Amino acid sequence: MSSASSATSAGIPCMLMRGGTSKGAYFLADDLPADPAARADLLLRVMGTPDPRQIDGIGGAHPLTSKVAVISRPRPATSGVDVDYLFLQLGVDAATVSDRQNCGNLLAGVGPFAVERGLIDAGDERTSVRIHMVNSGSVATATFPTPGGVVDYDGDTAISGVPGTAAPIMLDFAGTEGSACGALLPTGRVSDVIDGIEVTCVDNGMPVVVAVAADLGVTGYETPDDLAGDARLRERIQSLRLRAGKLMGLGDVTDSSVPKTTLVAPPRRGGVICTRTFIPLHPHTSIGVLGAVTVATALLIDGAVGHDIADLPEPGRPMSVEHATGSLEVDVDLDTTVIPPRVRRSSIVRTARKLFDGTVFPRPKLESTLGPQT
Ligand code: NQM
After folding, report:
1. Selecting from 3.40.366.10, 3.40.50.720, 3.40.50.2000, 3.10.310.10, what CATH number does the domain 3-168+352-360 have?
2. Which of 47, 70, 116, 190 could form a disulfide with 59 if both were Cys (CB 3.0 to 4.6 A apart)?
3. How many angstroms is it from 6 CA to the middle of ligand 1?
């Protein structure tokens, strides 16, 4: 693409989409600089980072709305895959751009975006897109309605955390096990004790540290705002994830968006478990897609934190993961007859919506805003 300064005046084609319970800017890779440092600098200026309000950009002043999806035809051409999807998590008040995690929520918009941009041909009724999740090398298949070859965003599927209903987008995952850490149980153990607290470190699409809420002095039923105001809890979670990051092979995670921490408590609304998640220190208003898949996977493992307090359904039935604004249903097929357990497949239903399609104009360069790239 053209130089970063010409991007400032000419703008860059961009589609703003809600993907699941997140919102992000979707770009074709060809419309962004190929060099990761130049791309990161440009995207920070698009989003208005660093600034807690992101007032001079299109970010929504929260990690869940400070996200970018970069889409291309597979590079190099990979057989059986239709598009590449690179997810970038941008900081809000810190100038960080991280490619160390997936995002299953923005993933929901990737298939529709690929059809809208002509990267793939739509079917007459529905379209299935095989998406290479570049961050982890895993593959997701997204299936969504395209009557007459046009993406239909309307429908009657409701997901917690989003008002109203929209068309269902089925997401089937393969190869998510060990997405960032290389193994489902990256410490080699089902549980570890860190800072005197028993945790399970697990990665089935998202590196997560699972701990019982009561062990950290909270109930696990607090609102995200209450949790955000608890400075002592924040310190304890940071200490836990810094140590866990090393044990999980992620190194120094001070400036990294992973691992996330999920506090679990017995379910209260007919689900499998109640969760409160930190991304990585900010309380999530719900729970991430692959975060929920990962936590649900841990619950199925005998001896893992949460297994004993979970109300597990019959094998093969969906698992409803309760969170601060509702619940999220995931399917996880785990073979627990082998050690370590092996994930056969996982899936989830999401919705997405095109919000805006146009040209975004990044703020001009400031002096050295770029922070650590993780
Ligand atoms: O876990 C938030 C989200 C996410 C990530 C986060 C996600 C996932 O809710 O797949 O979707 O964990 O930072 O969008």
Report:
1. 3.10.310.10
2. 47
3. 33
